[in-house]
Design goal:
Helix content is 49%, strand content 15%. The chain is α+β, with helices and mostly antiparallel strands. It starts with a helix and ends with a helix. This is AbiEi antitoxin C-terminal domain-containing protein.
Length: 200
């Protein structure tokens, strides 16, 4: 019979991981009562899947049908909760247009130091109004994702399709888009104006 303390630890870890598509950090495991030594044991035994340094996943979640955004949870945790999924990655998460970036776009605070070849980091301080919360990660709102993609010079055809869809679905207004683009500068304005012209 499993020791009560171990059941309590497992329950605490499960509650954290369940809200993060099965992922959890080493720090979260420590909070749940697992020492670093016991973490190595569980990873070695295959009880946990080691995803990256200090990042694990419960194997039960790997067998569940995916919802398409598991990778976003993984990179949000990699950033220790400091990153926001943004730009073309946020467009894809909002299912706007045909954006399918080969690397994950993250907006991080200016002092952020972590690096990975799998991600593209954009440094900015986002307003609370520009950020949406999903289960296990945060991402920029549809309007912010559109204008920051325009400011980044993202593929104009993809941007035009995304803007047309956002307008059609009532996620943004023309006036709101133009105003948001003005805040990010002339490149964002030009891209958005062209996209709105194409959507006329």
């Amino acid at each position: 019979m499993e020791h009560r303390g171990s059941l309590v630890r497992r329950g605490a870890l499960w509650r954290i991981a369940a809200g993060q598509r099965g992922y959890f950090t080493a720090a979260q495991a420590v909070e749940s009562g697992y020492s670093y030594q016991s973490q190595r044991y569980h990873a070695h035994r295959g009880n946990w899947v080691s995803v990256d340094r200090g990042l694990y996943r419960l194997p039960e979640f790997s067998d569940l049908p995916t919802e398409g955004d598991e990778q976003l949870v993984r990179w949000w945790l990699w950033s220790k909760g400091r990153a926001v999924i943004s730009h073309a990655s946020a467009l894809a998460a909002h299912d706007l247009g045909t954006a399918n970036p080969s690397r994950i776009h993250l907006t991080v605070p200016r002092g952020f130091r972590q690096k990975s070849e799998t991600v593209i980091l954009h440094r900015a301080e986002l307003r609370a109004a520009d950020v949406e919360h999903r289960q296990g990660y945060r991402l920029t709102t549809p309007i912010r994702a559109l204008v920051e993609s325009a400011a980044d010079g993202y593929d104009q055809d993809v941007l035009e399709g995304a803007v047309a869809e956002a307008l059609e679905r009532g996620m943004v207004t023309r006036r709101g888009l133009l105003h948001a683009a003005q805040l990010l500068g002339s490149r964002a304005e030009l891209g958005v104006e062209r996209a709105l012209g194409a959507a006329s």
